[in-house]
Amino acid sequence: KDFKTESLLYKHFITHASLSIVKKLVQYFTCDFCAKKYDSKISLQRHTLFLHNDRMPYICEHCGFTAYHEEPLKEHLAKEHVHCSTYLCYKCGLEFRDKSEL
Known about the structure:
With 102 residues, this protein is α+β, with helices and mostly antiparallel strands. It starts with 5 loop residues before the first helix and ends in a 6-residue tail after the last strand.
């Protein structure tokens, strides 16, 4: 039987072999930046592109967290900085979470 990817072949091995044998056969691709392991080269490339890319246009003004898209930054802000009202209007004294709201 032919398999389109090496990953699919290894998943098929599980049906015929014990897990310990399969683990020895599986080739992992390890991220050079964070040591996370992937079972396919394309998964590692996708991880590197989105998480370890210098072109991360969305940056958290509170802690420096970076994101490739706006949505992960919004989720980060809602989870990690929910109580951060750090932008104070010097004219009226109101506080804002987002600098653009001043």
